[in-house]
Amino acid sequence: MSDRYQLWGGCFQEEPSDVLRRLNDSLGVDVRLYQQDIRGSIAWARELNHCGYITDDDYEAIHQGLKKVETEISEELCKNGRLNDAEEDIHSVVERRLRAHAGEAALRLHTARSRNDQSATDTKLWMMNNLPSLINEIKKLIMELKDRAENEINIIIPGYTHLQRAQPIRWSHFLMSYAWMLRDDVLRLEEQQCRLSSSPLGSGALAGCALHINRHRLARSLGFDCVTPNSLFAVGCRDHILEFLNWSSMCGMHLSRLAEDLILYGSQEFGLVKFSDQFSTGSSLMPQKRNPDGLELIRGAAGLLLGDAFAFSCVLKGLPSTYNKDLQSDKEIMFRSFDKLLGCLKVATGTITTMKVNAARGEALLESGMLATDLAHALVRRGVPFRRAHHLIGAVLQRAAELAIDLRDMSHDEYLAICPEFGSKEDIEKLFSWEASVEQYVSTGGTAKAAVKQQISELKEWLEKYAEKVCKPQ
């Protein structure tokens, strides 16, 4: 028989096959839960002691032993980057090492506890500890977008629909559109906390705990708000992970769209932004190339994040109730998505912090046809119904194309021939102003300077209120 420590096997006469072990063993993944596993075990031992199921001496031996195990594992991971233990998972590693420090008392730790509720508790604790890191990184990106919007509010660029030039907008208005997307990502992740913060510990394998423990007290000692109301639900539910994966895919999609816009704006055809050397790479063949690889990797990562969310949905969809070993994949997918998204957020923030915007190029990309809507609005103000004004401006554009001239160069007589309500030559000339164009859009959420400043002010207020909450890992 193998000398590796197992939490099961009394009725087995043979060891598991090596090929099964390779598929089954999860220590390389769930080692990241060692602090949460030890924290949960200390709380569990304390509750057993409080209720009279283990002695004060045994509790103290377990408590002190677990702290030593935590120090050992921390030092080994710092030195080697991994554990060399032969056990199948982190729960087995902790218990074997604890026995070396606490002796027979270690054998009492798992009393009335299952790896089913233990693993579910560890994972939730890890999420509660680490998801605030994502929120803090998103907040840094939001602040950078907000700061640039505030400092570069006078820059006017083309706004696009269908990737076709549409109307002039402020560069700040573009930046703020993504700041608001990311603000909503923060709100969505925070909204998940109420469901995440319910403790499964004390649910046993599936039927509950046969000992008279106080699950509510136990939950509070670990920082949970409440307990799961049903033991079958507690050990088999991974909705909190699926919610996180779905959220990650949405946040990743927002980053991907931002990356795509900036990749386009950074191309030589647009030339609107230039990325720093820190966040660009070159070509192994073409010396002139400056590639926005960081942004392209963000764009690609969005597909991987979406794939993880869909993959785990497929894992869950056909499972019978309570715990099944299929659920062991939850941590691998969760860690992968977390790490990928955290890296993308840092690269996005660094790219935007260090990039330069070319205001002159932004203005050069503007062309008079983008003021067609302004011409229509001018006719509306003179009493022409909008639908008729829309068609009349279409005729103006067609006439300018026939004459092969810019709208600004078409004669006053040509305008009046199409519609007398265009007014004087001076009235028409006033319409061909990029500043005047954007300043029309003063309604809430518009691209006028006052409207953009109001957006910045509202976002700044939200950031300040959020800072008061101090989002820190537990």
Structure characterization notes:
The chain is mainly alpha-helical. Helices cover 62% and strands 4% of the residues. The chain has helices spanning 18-24, 27-30, 34-50, 56-80, 90-102, 115-151, 171-191, 193-196, 215-221, 231-236, 239-266, 293-317, 329-354, 359-364, 372-381, 386-403, 412-418, 425-431, 434-438, 449-469; strands spanning 156-161, 164-170, 198-199, 226-227, 273-274, 356-357. The strands form 3 sheets. It has a two-stranded antiparallel ribbon. It has a two-stranded parallel sheet with strand order 3-4. A hairpin with a 2-residue loop joins strand 1 (156-161) and strand 2 (164-170). Helix 3 packs across helix 6 (115-151). The longest helix is centred in the N-terminal third of the chain and has 37 residues, at 115-151. It is elongated, with a radius of gyration of 31 Å.
Q: Assign an overall shape.
A: elongated
Number of helical elements: 20
Tell me roughly what share of residues is in helical segments: 55-70%
Number of E-type strands: 6
What is the makeup of the main sheet? Answer: 2 strands, antiparallel
Strand sequence of the main sheet, in spatial order?
1-2
Low-confidence stretches: none
Residue-averaged pLDDT, rounded? 94
Q: In whole angstroms, how far apart are the ends?
A: 41 Å
Q: Give the DSSP E fraction (strand runs of 2 or more residues).
A: under 5%
Gyration radius (Cα, Å) is: 31 Å
Give the SSE string.
Answer: HHHHHHEEHHEHEHHEHHEHHHHHHH
Category by helix and strand content? mainly alpha
Write the layout of secondary structure elements.
Blueprint: H1 18-24, H2 27-30, H3 34-50, H4 56-80, H5 90-102, H6 115-151, E1 156-161, E2 164-170, H7 171-191, H8 193-196, E3 198-199, H9 215-221, E4 226-227, H10 231-236, H11 239-266, E5 273-274, H12 293-317, H13 329-354, E6 356-357, H14 359-364, H15 372-381, H16 386-403, H17 412-418, H18 425-431, H19 434-438, H20 449-469
Parallel strand pairs: 3-4
Antiparallel strand pairs: 1-2, 5-6
